[in-house]
Write a structure and sequence with these properties.
Layout (H helix, E strand, L loop, with lengths): L11 E5 L6 H12 L2 E4 H14 L7 H9 L3 E6 L2 E6 L2 E2 L7 H10 L3 H15 L4 E5 L2 H5 L5 E6 L2 H14 L6 H17 L12 E4 L5 H17 L20
Parallel strand pairs: 1-6, 1-7, 2-6, 7-8
Antiparallel strand pairs: 3-4, 4-5
Helix pairs in contact: 1-9, 2-4, 2-5, 3-5, 7-8
Bound molecules: 2'-deoxycytidine-5'-monophosphate.
């Protein structure tokens, strides 16, 4: 007897939301619990931003960004200490976390050729299933047929506090007021852009993480995934994801 066909959409969890909502902490913990791959889509836009800065490419120059993305090889490697982001053989994990790169990533992510290239890579990675994807458009654009979609939000003051703590832990000095302003501006830019704006998918479940721990958020998501997985009775629908494989995840 043939084994039942895998329903890839049942194995994709998407978490979208604004900066500082706790998406990466929750995404990493959730991926670990589910033994899924953690796909940090923001890291990919940050990689583009980093290379653009290094090569003197303006975030406004679509042609140059397109050429830059064409040759860009971004992969993720799992290490005991956590996931590493590799671009053309270079470990760029630390470099892409600079606050300036976050802002530049938001700027380059507004450009069509950049989004096309990154979404293509993200779908190739997701086509293998068992993935927790995190970003701004993973439920709306990248994996619109994913079964488990979450939109994680928190009050702006709390998001700013979290981001501030992260920066201080990394030895960066920052004023709380400035962090909050940066977060507001980046959310506005990500939400108001024409292409793939930050917004919840119609079928996403909203979670407000204000005042609750990342562990609690993970438990809430797991409860939904576990319940629905047990209740999976419908036959799988044909997958819209590209079949092409070949790019390793890490
Ligand atoms: O999540 P992050 O801070 O690493 O993301 C950096 C920027 O990348 C974010 O401000 C907007 C962009 N981004 C995007 O446009 N789409 C995604 N799916 C993820 C990030």
């Amino acid at each position: 007897m043939k084994p039942p066909r895998r329903n890839i959409e049942m194995e994709i969890v998407t978490i979208d939301g604004p900066a500082g909502a706790g998406k990466s902490t929750v995404g990493k913990m959730l991926a670990q619990r589910l033994k899924y791959f953690y796909l940090d889509t923001g890291a990919m836009y940050r990689a583009v931003a980093l290379r653009a800065r290094e090569q003197g490419v303006s975030p406004e120059d679509e042609g140059a960004l397109k050429r830059l993305c064409r040759g860009l090889d971004i992969t993720f490697q799992e290490h005991k200490q956590g996931q590493r982001v590799i671009c053309q053989g270079e470990d760029i994990t630390a470099k892409i976390r600079e606050p300036e790169i976050g802002w530049m990533a938001s700027a380059v992510s507004m450009k069509r050729p950049v989004r096309q290239a990154m979404v293509r890579l993200q779908r190739i990675i997701g086509a293998k299933g068992k993935v927790v994807a995190e970003g701004r458009d993973t439920g709306t654009v990248v994996f619109p047929r994913a079964k488990f979609k979450f939109f994680l939000d928190a009050e702006v003051a709390e998001r700013a506090r979290r981001r501030h703590r992260e920066w201080v832990e990394r030895g960066l000095s920052a004023e709380m007021k400035k962090v909050e302003k940066e977060i507001r501006e980046r959310d506005e830019q990500d939400s108001l852009r024409e292409l793939a704006p930050l917004r919840p998918a119609a079928d996403a479940r909203h979670i407000d993480s204000t005042g609750i721990s990342a562990e609690e958020v993970v438990e809430r998501i797991l409860a939904v995934v576990e319940k629905a997985s047990r209740l999976q009775v419908k036959p799988p629908r044909p997958s819209p994801l590209p079949r092409k494989r070949g790019r390793g995840r890490g």
